[in-house]
Structure formats: C-alpha cells, structure tokens
Amino acid sequence: MNISTRFAVAIHILALLETNKEGKNTSEWIAGSVGTNPVVIRRITSMLGKAGLIEVRPGIAGAKLARAAGEITLLDIYLAVDAVGKDSLFAVHEHPNPSCPVGQNIAGAMIPVFSLAQQAMEDVLSKVTLAQIASQIPV
C-alpha cells in the first residue's frame, strides 16, 4: 500500500485554512479548491479535528487551525489521517515460493530496510511545518 491521498488532501485543507484565516472555510468551499466532494473534506477534517489540528465550527464559519501553522508538522498531519500504518509504507509480496531459498527469506531481508526507509521519511516530515508549506504558496 502506498501513502493515501488523504495525506496530500489534508495538507491542502490545512494550507487553505492558514491562508484564509479571516474567510469562511466551509467544507463546500474547501472541496472546490481540492476538487473533490464536500463529504470527503468532512471525513478528513474530522480526522484532523480528532488529532487536535483544527477546530470545526458548524455553520457559516467552518474550520480553522487549532494551533499555529508553525507548530504543525507534516508528520502530525501524516499521523492524523492515518496515511499509512506503522512499517507498512512498503509492502512485501504475499506469496513467495516457500520451496525457493530466496522466496523463503526475501521478506526477512527486505522488511528491516523498508522499516528504516519509512522511519527516514517520517523524520523528514517531522522537520517540515505547515507554515513552511503555506509560505511557498503565493496568495
């Protein structure tokens, strides 16, 4: 399984909230920017709310960031939307031939490397803030 698009959509949502602090951030308005259905936006904003990244105010006002953008890392967002499970960014094929020496042992050889690679990616995400991403967007 690769990283869910929920991660990219969640970053998009949060960047919108950061750049439109005084505006009305309804799920319909956000969906128009993301190019998806408001139901998808509500599902992801619910996940972001449970993680303490946004506050959702029913009605006209919509959503806003619960913390400063400089305090929200991409790792926070990645974890909030359950983009991929622990040590499951890279998958090992399921049915190697158990009679083959490579088939018997390939998973054991690959899994530790895959785990290290996922950890390295998560370390990078922990060093990038939403504020850094939003600052790259001309508004």
Layout of helices and strands:
Blueprint: H1 5-19, H2 27-34, H3 38-50, E1 54-57, E2 62-65, H4 74-80, H5 101-125, H6 130-134
Helix pairs in contact: 1-3, 2-3, 4-5
Q: What does this molecule look like?
A:
With about 140 residues, the protein is mostly helical. A hairpin with a 4-residue loop joins strand 1 and strand 2 (about 60-65). It has helices at about 5-20, 25-35, 40-50, 75-80, 100-125, 130-135, and strands at about 55, 60-65. The longest helix is centred in the last third of the chain and has 25 residues, at about 100-125. The mean pLDDT is about 90. About 55% of the residues lie in helices and about 5% in strands. It has a two-stranded antiparallel sheet with strand order 1-2.
Q: How would you briefly describe this protein structure?
A:
With 139 residues, the chain is mainly alpha-helical. Helix content is 53%, strand content 6%. The protein is elongated, with a radius of gyration of 19 Å.
Percentage of β-strand residues: 5-15%
Largest sheet: 2 strands, antiparallel
Task: Determine the N-to-C terminus distance.
Answer: 34 Å
What is the approximate shape? elongated
Q: What is the radius of gyration?
A: 19 Å
Please report the total strand number as a whole number.
2
> Average pLDDT value?
91
Q: Return the string of H and E elements.
A: HHHEEHHH
Q: State the helicity in percent bands.
A: 40-55%
Structural class: mainly alpha
